[in-house]
Amino acid sequence: MPNKHNDDRRHHSPKMSFKVQNWPEYEAGLRRRGSLTLWIDDAVLDRWQSVGPTGQARYRDIAIETSLMLRMAFNIALRQTEGLMESVLTLMNLTITAPDHTTVSRRSVGLTVTKSPSAPKGPLHVLIDSTGLQVFGAGQWLEEKHGAKSRRTWRKLHLAVDADIGMIVAQVLTDQHMDDPSQVGPLLDQVDEEINQVMVDGAYDGAPTYQLIAQYGGDIEVVIPPRKTAVLSMESRSPSQRNRHLNKITTEGRLAWQEATGDGQRALVETTMGRYKSIIGPRLRARRFGAQQAEAAIGVAVLNRMLSAGRPNFVRSQTVPA
Question: Which of 54, 75, 162, 258 lies in disulfide reach of 263, CB 3.0 to 4.6 Å?
Fold first, then answer.
């Protein structure tokens, strides 16, 4: 009598496993992420602060950004960040001072965050997606303290990730009502390098998204999983990228299309979203929207710094089911 479980296993697709090839280097990078070795370049010292007419310190953006990055990296409050900065500057025997927590909070609104110096070079394969971040405000405090019902507020963090090294090359924070396709342009506007491919999920499907991306380079390959209800658009000229995707799915099936286009790489941007929420956190601390935008940008900068300290080099291996 045939074994039903064996029959089931025979029909299951083999699972894919991944092996880290550079484990010693990656392990060293993970240790560096927790290192308390800090330094401030001499060029930064000259741009840290100036002195006002009455002798008060006037801090430049680099001082505010540094304080916010330490706050995000160590997940501490602004007052504790001020204390950490003071202790670091004292240990380094520097004459500059640490910005107080009220100054950091006030100056975070509209702060322009410095781009990572190790940004990847083009042409880039860009993955785009979004995730929700909760805003912890007075309503949530009342709910936790007194059990009062409140409407939760949240923001959407839109990210563009380089598929080759996993670095975040662009970010936009919007309110929860902003649709995903409308943020493709603002994300690509931040990418200085040439782009050769853009991948997004089915929520972005539609001719407008293809047309928008084409403005950044007519030869950019666009990979978007068409919706099940998608239909061919009427065209007098050669078939568009979207129509070619639909034709391949119709003739060969969606699995064949996914393999041919490498659509599975979109999982990398979802992994980045998970890293943001596990390391930086799933909610925003700032109350004002301008400060929330700076907070999200600082979080992205911290993740990119951690990634530059060491990243795994994965090789996919196929395991045969038992």
Answer: 258
